[in-house]
Amino acid sequence: MKKILLPTDFSKNSWNAILYALEFFKKDTCNFYLLHVSSVSNYANGFTPVLSTNENSTADVLAETTTALQQLVTKIKGLPANNKHHFFTLASTGPFIEAIRDKILENDIELIVTGTKGANGIKKIIVGSNTGDIITKVKCHVLVVPEKAIFKIPKEIAFPTDYNLFYQSKILHSITEVASIFNGCIRIVHVAKRDEELTAYQKENKTYLNDFFAGKRYGFYKVTNKKIEAGVQCFVESRNIDLIIMIAKNLNLFQQILFKPTVEEISYHTEIPFLVLHE
Fold this sequence. Notes:
The chain is an alpha/beta fold.
């Protein structure tokens, strides 16, 4: 039984994230927890409250939120039925991240699925936004679904790394689990400058990955580019990547790929889902 948190602001992009989650876990028995957090200050960066807490008591806000969540469940149940999926509603007020953390603990959540919205995607919306805070401040795996993402079986999975960090086997098992479910291939990609060579430590980490993924469908790739995000874009296009998996503890690489791109140069962050794993 998988327990998945679906934060929602009842917007088009959050609905798209829900649809993606339902398809992604189509064959899994899941409890989906639909959460809306009502707090005016928490919607400054993209989330729209159901109503203003300045004009209504907390009880009124929670009551209206609960009604809206129940209507959302009704909408979901209007989709083709899946007896393996069960839905629960969670209404909360107060600081957004605190509410997320509380619900994770209360319901033993193992994954958050959240959307991004806006023409600028991750670059301008996630940084400083609710989605960005979830990724960087909550120690829980996060599947980020851009508003332009349409579910495709993730046969081609990119795993960007610079080989600078040692990854524990538990976190790598999460990658192989996703790949095995969809019979996907893990493409381990390193973006480097033209004359850049691996250090001895990087070579050790690459060897460890090679040993760990032995027997799986995987491959190592090097993309030559001065800019990491541009190299990732090139790789995504050349391999028709369906899903990008990143490990959050590699902060330098993580920020380069998720938070640096500009929409004029890069499009992967508006089209390709990201699975961000926390150790």
